[in-house]
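Worked example 4.2. Below are the chains of a multi-component assembly; read each line carefully before continuing.
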Amino acid sequence: MPDLVLGLPLADTNFVDATWIMIVKSLVIFIVILSLVPLLLLGERKLLGRFQQRYGPNRVGPYGLGQPLADVGKLLSKQAFRPKGAVPFLYEIAPALTIISAVLTLAILPFGDVQGDVGFYGIDVPIGILYFFAFSSIAFYGLLLGGWASGSKYSFLGAMRSAAQLISYEIAMGLSLLGVVMMAGSLSLVDIVKAQGEVWYVVPQIVGFLIFLVGGFAETNRPPFDLPEADAELVAGYGTEYGGMRFGSFMFAEYMEMLIVSGIASTMFLGGWMGPGPPGLDPVWMLLKMIVLTIFFIWIRATLPRFRYDQLMSFGWKILLPLATLNVLVTAVLVVVT
Amino acid sequence: MLHQYLPVLVFAALGILVGGAFATLNLVLGPKRLKGDESSAAIRQMDPYECGLPSEISKTFRFGVSFYLVAMLFILFDIEVVFLYPVGAILKSTDSVFVLAEVVLFVALLFVALIYVWRKGALDWR
Amino acid sequence: MSFDAPTIDYAGLSPVIALTVGLVVIVLAAVFDSVRRFGPALALLTYAVTAGCLIWQWNANLDLVSGSLRIDGLAVTLSLLAVIAAAVAVLLAIGDPSETQAGRSDWLALLTGSLLGMVILAQATSMLTFFVGLELLSIPLYALCGTNLRRRESLESGLKYLIVGSVGSATLLYGLAMIYGASGATGFQAISDGLQAGDGMLSDSLTLVGVGMVAVGLAFKVSIAPFHQWTPDVYQGAPTPVTAFMAVATKAAAFAVFIRFFLVALGPLADQWDVMLAALAALSIVVGNVGALAQTSLKRMLGYSGVAQAGYMLAGIVTATQAGVDALVFYLAAYVAMNVAAFAVVVIRERQNGFSDDISTLRGLGREKPLLAWPLTIAMLALAGLPPTAGFIGKLYLIEALVDDDWTWLAVMIAIGTMISLGYYLRVVATLWMSPAGQAEAGAEIDTASLPPQIAGAQADPFEDSRADRRWYLVAPALIATAAALFFGVIPQPLVDFAQHAGDALSVWIS
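Applying the procedure described above to all three chains together yields the following structure tokens:
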């Protein structure tokens, strides 16, 4: 019996690129996403402006295109300080943790299948989707430590809220992807995309898709789940005591995580890199789907008001968790019966 | 086969590079300290934020009991998810009613736990 | 890709399955108001079905779940004892403050969970099921000890048990890890084979340290001196029904795995560990009996006496013979009867006396309520090992097994211990029959009629029950257990067969 289970091909991930290709493709993926982040910041402000009948930033450069650069320049020229009562080292390392977590998670996004000698992804490993959960959860330590180590009550409240919120929604998020894993019969993201040749999983797994999106909003602290940083009550929550580029780190990581969640949603439910055109266009399709989903994130921010905290917790535990569990059960039955 | 994890190291290095740079660049590029009167503004700047009131500095914040409850429930249900992933991945290839029954039984037992904590009011935020 | 479902022996697993299903039902009953009050009935039904399954599997002798569990005579007999103890605890807990305050079915769910751990432990033949069973047994018990929420002592005992129990579990786990390292196996039989196959492994220090740590861990669980310090405090502080359950059921389950692990997995090492266990047994007998002499609290005294009794039982393992195992199981069965009788009377007296278990509250009971005094008297005589009770026969068997295997000095220790124990057992009997009825604590009496109503209400304990000695669910266990202790003292043959059934299960491994 145990031999049989071990003999099951969890994921067919035998392709290994040459070492230099691995390093180069990692750098390329990183630089592409890194350059997307400032654009996204600008795009969000522009879009929010339009949603609210404003222009948004339009002073720096043509159409305000220089705005992100100006922001970074401003943040970099601030004084580095540590408030009284802050815990040394932990206070400094917390923002870096969130960024490390986000960058590490990037490795799992697939932008295409193996073409020639190159696999268009950072890594394609048998544990696949578990890698995403493992590394994206590290961001939680960044927020928690940042809020706790600041030595301010606003920060601490923000940290507590984010701790409870993140772990509550992570369960529903994990269960929502399980349906896809069952249908594809693999944990490898590349295999999952390939299994969507006939129909994207958003059709059979619409419940899972919606739960994942909601969970994704909560995991990235995006409105309407931005209680940890609720500007109106907590003045940026865990980020209250941060200034300069350390504060920028939290923002940076948040936008990167938004892109990653969009990427995972595209991969698991929207056919990943699949689209018309030659295989060379695959990464473009993937990026396009990611950006469309990210714009949806921004749209939601403009549309929905913030949750109240008790509503947030009961929504996660009493609606999303049972719903996701039922989705898993129904999927399991359907997978075996059909 | 650990060789295929090499990009993870590259990404980790990039993450540490960027994160470390963001955390320390202000030390290099920013002003060293506030100009002007040493006694007031420069000192006040280091106070924790408070909307105009004298700041209350405390290092002994404690998490409320409710958070521990949520954390314990998280462990319970997250283990459920982690256990279900390997079974979920092989469910299709085995195509076995036995495996399905195992999954359903496992989930049903945890559902009982969910009903219990729900009815006990552990999911109501206080 | 083909996948063949493993064959599962559902008949052999039926006791575990029955308990699990019952546990789920009781947990659900705890949160639905309409069915909450059926909790005790559900629990008793579950235990009855489990007992039925165990009796159904009486002659079974087979490995389950790829050799992780084994249902055989030893598992069936000792599980049955644990189930009986749990059923008695359910009856004794009806109307108890602990059960009411913890929410009736919640309390019963904890009890059933603990019992499930015991049944698994009695069947365990792999280090993994061994540890899982032990934790499943222990963790609900920690909580149960603290369920008398209004009493500081109860919470204290729960915390104490948690800390000491965790230390015991950790020690045990380290020991298991070392034995795994030495033998390279987790199954008990495979450990034995691995130790014999390994070059010099039988006398390797890794193995020996592992054996020592496992013995210490288990000694914590069955309260063998010098790892017994928690016992009197926890026994006294815990709600009495829980104490009754803990005293007998935990011993039954833990001794089951003690026997199985030492005689099967560590059988080839018998020459190394028998002296160590003999020393522990002798120390327990001395410490338990001497410690009990000075106690004024009945529950504390029974706690110390439990330490001594654990020492007697451990002597059965020291012999590493089938006769020793038979004697141990016989003694355990008798111990269940004697302890249930004693604790049932303690429960009744506690409810009538504002929850004091001081020995002085028993004064004149013989004249006033002979129906309560006789069970306690016979329980004390049986614990002391006087004829014509099952305790006497049990000690006889133990001493016979020891002498046959050249452990005469340990047999002498048992005899000496028995003589010391007469000192405190007979003191209880004397208090029952020879002291005049009187106010134990005259100062504690307050004339509630003269006080304003709200203060008077605060004085009256809602759980006090002056008619406790007429509640069938409290008196019946006491009387039945007393009858059993007497019956098996006069006609021991059925219990001897019962015990031999347990010993026969190990006939492959020991002579």
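Take a moment to check your reading of the output against the notes. DSSP finds four helices and no strands in chain B. Chain B touches chain C at residues 93-99, 109, 112-113, 115-116, 118-120 (CB under 8 Å).
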